[in-house]
């Protein structure tokens, strides 16, 4: 039986990131950016790497193929002390690519994905759960993952739900029902408002508290809010001087929060760690270039809490 802290499911993308682009090009135009990175990304990869750097034992279960981009992903995982041994490997191309353009403080994306055999992937994950003990499962809040979620819950795992923006799914009643299977859910403000139909972060948090055990609403640079016995707790974000790229800031935030929880910290301190990790991550191009290590956390963050860094 394999013992890990977290099992992370979902696709890993190859990220082609152009940063410091002065403006979006018009049709037929060419615009030069001042920064570039070719790396891996997507929430599965970023969260896994960020948590591994924080000392957590992570199992990555991503769909990969026989193409050079999948091999690049395997190599990148290995560089981070992770492995593709738990992944769903198919004997054909499984290209998952995102081109990101960072301009004027915002981002635009173009993405391509080869078709995934969803049924085969789900069977792989179910079989993997028979061989693995984990404290947490990170998985996308989609109907096809329900059997995996239910099996993980039966093994005592805490379920951490992720969500990508889908105009139809995010407003659906079915999503709200699925979220009831989760223990932790950290939507950004736009997602929280869309899911709940509310107009403020506090109202959205109140609704989410009736759906999922521990919701945390991310407010970007403003920090995050979370439920407390008294009502709404707020962790104020700290300004980051000269941010380079905001790609993956939310995933680094999640990595910090979950690491704090797994270390037995209170939710407030865990969210503070999440804010620190999210803030550090924007200092590099791509989602993990500046993800902090646990040594950085102990040096730059732990002393602020008066802890010993366990």
TrEMBL record:
<dbReference type="InterPro" id="IPR002173">
    <property type="entry name" value="Carboh/pur_kinase_PfkB_CS"/>
</dbReference>
<keyword id="KW-0808">Transferase</keyword>
<feature type="domain" description="Carbohydrate kinase PfkB">
    <location>
        <begin position="24"/>
        <end position="293"/>
    </location>
</feature>
<dbReference type="GO" id="GO:0016301">
    <property type="term" value="F:kinase activity"/>
</dbReference>
<protein>
    <submittedName>
        <fullName>Carbohydrate kinase family protein</fullName>
    </submittedName>
</protein>
<dbReference type="Pfam" id="PF00294">
    <property type="entry name" value="PfkB"/>
</dbReference>
<keyword id="KW-0418">Kinase</keyword>
<dbReference type="InterPro" id="IPR011611">
    <property type="entry name" value="PfkB_dom"/>
</dbReference>
<dbReference type="InterPro" id="IPR029056">
    <property type="entry name" value="Ribokinase-like"/>
</dbReference>
């Amino acid at each position: 039986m394999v013992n890990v802290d977290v099992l992370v499911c979902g696709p890993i993308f190859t990220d082609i990131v152009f940063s410091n682009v002065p403006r979006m090009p018009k049709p037929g135009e060419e615009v030069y950016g001042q920064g570039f990175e070719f790396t891996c990304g997507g929430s599965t990869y970023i969260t896994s790497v960020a948590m591994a750097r924080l000392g957590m034992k992570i199992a990555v279960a991503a769909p990969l193929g026989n193409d050079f981009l999948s091999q690049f992903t395997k190599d990148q995982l290995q560089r981070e002390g992770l492995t593709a041994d738990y992944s769903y490997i198919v004997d054909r191309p499984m290209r998952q690519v995102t081109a990101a353009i960072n301009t004027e403080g915002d981002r635009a994306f173009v993405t391509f994905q080869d078709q995934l055999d969803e049924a085969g992937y789900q069977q792989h994950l179910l079989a993997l759960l028979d061989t693995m003990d984990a404290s947490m499962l990170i998985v996308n809040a989609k109907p096809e993952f329900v059997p995996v979620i239910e099996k993980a819950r039966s093994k005592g795992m805490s379920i951490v739900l992720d969500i990508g923006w889908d105009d139809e799914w995010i407003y659906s009643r079915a999503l709200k029902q699925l979220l009831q299977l989760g223990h932790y859910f950290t939507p950004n403000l736009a997602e929280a408002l869309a899911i709940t139909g509310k107009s403020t972060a506090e109202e959205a948090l109140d609704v989410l508290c009736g759906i999922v055990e521990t919701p945390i609403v991310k407010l970007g640079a403003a920090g995050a809010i979370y439920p407390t016995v008294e009502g709404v707790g707020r962790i104020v974000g700290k300004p980051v001087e000269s941010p380079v790229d905001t790609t993956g800031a939310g995933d680094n935030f999640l990595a910090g929060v979950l690491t704090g929880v797994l270390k037995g910290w209170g939710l407030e301190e865990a969210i503070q760690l999440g804010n620190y990790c999210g803030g550090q991550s924007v200092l590099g191009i791509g989602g993990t270039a500046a993800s902090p290590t646990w040594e950085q956390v102990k040096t730059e963050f732990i002393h602020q809490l008066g802890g010993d860094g366990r």
